[in-house]
From TrEMBL:
Keyword Transferase: yes
GO molecular function, one term: glycosyltransferase activity
Recorded coiled-coil stretches: none
Protein name in UniProt: Glycosyltransferase
Keywords assigned: Transferase
GO BP annotations, alphabetical order: lipopolysaccharide biosynthetic process
């Protein structure tokens, strides 16, 4: 896989279930968290040194692709047993590098995000034989993390059946905080003292000025009474610092990224969880990924019975309507419309919270993984 295992908690959940099902797991990819890597190694995961490293120069990228393909071919030819083994591939733009290698083996494709379908002329010159449709159609199984995304892929690739839908629900349900770093406990204790008797609205995730815009949410909290507090937690960067410089106060608190699962010590303090996903015009992936977002934080919020608030997105809207677990803010988004949506939640909080618990319990992550394995 291309992405670091650390930033993919759903993949960590999947590995945990596979191990519980008695599946021998060999992980080909990067895991920069030594603690997490050691944990999985103790459970039996074999981490193979077959890692692709993205490069910034075209010629370096080409050399890296050649090196990686040679390494992958060698590993699979020696270790892959076609009678018993299958490649579980996290779909990414690495597909064009590996597709012709995988055709000699059984593989399934697991989509966490859509990728753009159009490539540069340089790509087309180098990999003119690559077809995303053919690559997907010849997979033993196709998996998506969201229902609408599964239908879109079925239509794009003319699949005979709907891909499996495996939501990004954390697994297992029980959370082990025994190894929580002391600095995280200190941060949480300090935070608790700041939010005594407050109604806490939480945003957790990455900070991006276009796709994950938060300005209107900050403006909304500023105009509400001192009873309401916004906590913004996650990966920093320039937008994080800009927001912090503009809004940081006793009512709007900024917290840096806390690695999983320890960030849930902050999550469980919230009363409402914010989701902010705005389509980026100009690309297929930039529009579809936000519109039909499938964030694991909907389960992190709902695990604790935390109702959700988001901009108007078809994927989240249908969830809110079915389970009564959240509210949307319709366009154009204004601080006033956010305030009104928050008040609707707090005025009927118990029912929204029950809806969140109901949504969380509706997904049997382990059962779906079992269904996928049984289909192979």
């Amino acid at each position: 896989m291309r992405n670091d295992l650390v930033i993919l908690p759903p993949m960590q959940s999947l590995i945990t279930v596979l191990l519980e099902k008695g599946v021998q797991v060999h992980f080909l990819g990067k895991c920069s968290d030594i603690e997490r890597k050691s944990y999985f190694a103790r459970l039996g995961v074999v981490f193979e040194d077959v890692i692709y490293t993205p490069q910034d120069k075209i010629y370096k990228t080409l050399l890296e692709q050649i090196r990686y393909r040679r390494l992958l071919k060698q590993y699979l030819s020696v270790n892959m047993n076609n009678d018993t083994d299958i490649i579980w591939f996290e779909y990414s733009d690495m597909a064009y590098i590996v597709y012709d290698i995988f055709k000699n083996y059984d593989y399934l494709i697991h989509f966490y995000e859509f990728q753009n379908l159009k490539y540069s002329w340089k790509f087309q010159l180098m990999y003119h034989r690559y077809s995303m449709v053919d690559f997907v159609k010849t997979a033993k199984a196709v998996i998506h993390c969201e229902y609408n995304r599964a239908h879109i892929t079925r239509g794009l690739c003319a699949l005979k059946s709907l891909p499996f839908v495996l939501p990004n629900k954390p697994y297992p349900d029980d959370i082990d905080f025994s190894n929580t770093p002391s600095e995280v406990f200190d941060l949480v204790d300090s935070l608790k003292r700041k939010i005594v008797d407050k109604k806490v609205i939480l945003y957790q995730g990455i900070f991006a000025p276009n796709e994950r815009r938060l300005d209107e949410f900050c403006d909304a909290i500023e105009q509400m009474s001192n009873e309401y507090v916004l906590i913004a937690m996650g990966h920093g960067g320039k937008y994080f610092e800009d927001l912090k410089k503009k809004y940081a106060s006793v009512k709007i608190i900024f917290i840096p990224f806390i690695k999983s699962p320890y960030h849930l010590l902050v999550t469980q303090l919230a009363h409402v969880g914010v989701l902010s996903y705005f389509p980026l015009n100009g690309s297929y992936a930039g529009v579809l990924n936000p519109l039909y977002c499938a964030p694991n934080k909907i389960f992190e919020y709902s695990k604790f019975g935390i109702p959700m608030l988001s901009n108007d997105l078809p994927g989240l809207r249908s969830m809110y309507l079915e389970y009564g677990c959240g509210e949307i803010v319709q366009y154009p988004i204004t601080p006033n419309s956010i305030v009104n949506a928050l008040l609707r939640i707090f005025n009927n909080y118990e029912n929204y919270s029950k809806g969140a618990h109901h949504f969380y319990s509706s997904v049997d992550f382990k059962g779906i993984v079992s269904e996928i394995l049984n289909s192979l």
